[in-house]
Amino acid sequence: MTSVRAESTKGSIDPLLSVRALDLYYGDAQALDQVSLDVPRGEIVAIVGANGAGKSSLIRTIAGIEKPRSGQIRFAGHEIAGLESHRVCNLGVGQVAEGRQVFPTLTVAENLEMGAMLPRARTLARRTIAEVYELFPRLAERRGQLAGTMSGGEQQMLAIGRCLMGQPDLIMFDEPSLGLAPAIVQEVFRIIRALNAKGLTVLLVEQNVAVSLRISRRAYVLENGRVVMTGSGDELLHDDRVRQAYLGL
Fold first, then answer.
1. Between the CA of residue 231 and those of 113, 186, 248, what are the distances in Å?
2. Cα torsion angle, 138, 111, 127, 166, sign
3. What pLDDT is recorded for position 14?
4. Which string of DSSP letters, residue by residue, matches 72-86?
5. Dihedral sign, CA of 104, 128, 202, 86?
6. Which of 23, 38, 39 is nearest to 81 (CA)?
7. Regarding beta strands 226-232 and 218-223, do their DSSP bridges make them parallel or antiparallel, or are they unpaired?
8. Beta-carbon neighbour count of residue 243 at 10 Å?
9. Is 99 helix (H, G, I), strand (E, B) or coil?
10. How many C-beta atoms surround the C-beta of residue 145 within 10 A?
11. Distance in angstroms (rounded) separating the CA atoms of residues 32 and 225
């Protein structure tokens, strides 16, 4: 399919997030190799690939958790490559990490309050927490419950809610359906689509390749730390190479 192509550095006009020629090493091992991608404002962009392809490393590098050896990361006009993670967050980049990573000994309400500690979010915290409780009624019901005693699905809702408390313009989801029951997985994807419909930009790393491609406007395929294909979600979903490698078809 000619519209599915090797990745070039030519992106859309004024993307919210732009990554160019990104290299990341863990010691002598290279995890990302000249990765370039664009995330246009208001869209869902998926990153797909096998385990170990570099998907989580890419998310962590954008978030400021890992420091790249070289390359550029621009977000909303700011160069953020190498910035401390709290500064990246305060510019409007939110992350829902793999494994949820809630604070287990804090209550639901306390976890959400932690998400609003960013300077950009403090003045809107009361309004935002009301919006989170409206989006996730289960969290409102259990606001006094310790997060560590909740189910995996409830913890994922809490992790998303805590991210929203930081008033992000971009949310990066790292394997949001991992370890969840099928019914909860459907709910998580419904929430991602709903957040995008409200104007949030989404960068999605997800093991469920078929679903992530169906809901994404654009997608990139990572192999061994390199972007090897890009196209619309629909194009990649119907590409023979992607279907054989990731969908078992």
1. 39, 24, 20
2. negative
3. 81
4. EEEETTEE-TT--HH
5. negative
6. 23
7. antiparallel
8. 15
9. coil
10. 16
11. 4
In the β-sheet with 29-39, what is the strand arrangement from edge to edge?
29-39, 17-26, 70-75, 78-79
Q: Which residues contact 236 (CB under 8 A, 6 or more apart)?
A: 4, 48, 213, 219, 221, 229, 230, 242
Name the amino acid, one letter, at 161: G
Residue type, 64: G
Q: Name the residue with tokens 């992607």.
A: 242
Q: How far apart are CA 203 and CA 174, in angstroms?
A: 9
- pLDDT at residue 10 tops 80: no
What gap in Å lies between CA 191 and CA 198, rounded to an integer? 11
| Alpha-carbon span 45 to 213, nearest angstrom | 9
pTM, to two decimals: 0.90
Tokens of 209: 């390749």
Write the pLDDT tens digit of every residue in 97-145.
Answer: 887 789 999 999 999 999 999 999 999 999 999 999 999 999 999 999 9
Q: Do the Cβ atoms of 80 and 93 come closer than 8 Å?
A: yes
Query: At 208, which amino acid appears?
Result: N
In this predicted model, what pLDDT tens digit does every residue of 201-242 receive, in sequence order? 999 998 889 999 999 999 999 999 999 999 999 999 999 999
Please compute, for residue 54, the number of CA atoms within 13 A of its CA located in the half-sphere on the CB side. 26
- Separation of first and last alpha carbons in the chain: 17
Give Cα separations from 20 to 38, 119, 131 (angstroms): 9, 28, 35
DSSP state of 32: E
d(CA 86, CA 138): 29
